[in-house]
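Response to reviewer comment R2.3. The reviewers asked that we include at least one raw input/output pair. We reproduce the pair for Secreted protein here without editing.
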Amino acid sequence: MRTLRTVLLPLGLVAMLVATALPSHAEQRGTRYPGHTDIVATTFWVGEIFDPSAEDGSQMFSTYDDHWFESYGGCDGVVTARGCETERRTARNGYFPTKMKPRENPFYLDLPYDDLNDRAGFAQRRKVVPWADKSPWRRIVRDPDRSIMKNRWVKISRRGHHCYGQIQDAGPGKYHDKKYVFGTKDARPANKRYNRAGMDVSPALNGCLHFSELNGDSDRVDWRFVDYAQVPPGPWKRIITRS
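Raw output as returned:
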């Protein structure tokens, strides 16, 4: 049997250890990014194929992951004779899918800025992406094989509901809309498709935000980027995508 021993440390050393372990006030607060209001949000999901003839008509892959379907763990919904279809999500199981176990965060979204495959988006990301000069992104900002958009956190609000998700794709409709995505004047999305939608959200976010439509283009949200330190506990932290 081991004998427990109490080790008394000088108060100065204790204070130093606590200060090292805890994030600073600045880290706890994070950066206050500009808000975007009254934005149409549609719903998409891993495994969805809504237009086989369109280059961007499938969610088997994303702009950041050529094997998104496999990385995620399969259809983020229900497999039927018609393919991978979405399903209503509820708080009962944290808005997680009911027919599969995801390997990545089911709280995902896209925004219309591709900083990896869009040549202009990559060339300009050092100037327009607000966190491009911060650690750890500044170490990879010049790497043409690494995105500084993927996995970034976003706070989305609708009618008193506040939910959080990670960016895993680019769209809808446009892929280089820097004025809308990073602007400080609440610009409208340049996209004209899907009722001028400015983002797609996953089924988990659809349920968390209490969208009126399971797969429509009438729901509107407010959103802003947030740092990880600003993300509160919730089902969106059960699985965090880091790939």
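The domain at 33-237 is CATH 2.40.40.10 (Barwin-like endoglucanases). The helical segments are 11-21, 25-29, 68-72, 119-128, 178-182, 203-208. Further pairs are available on request from the corresponding author.
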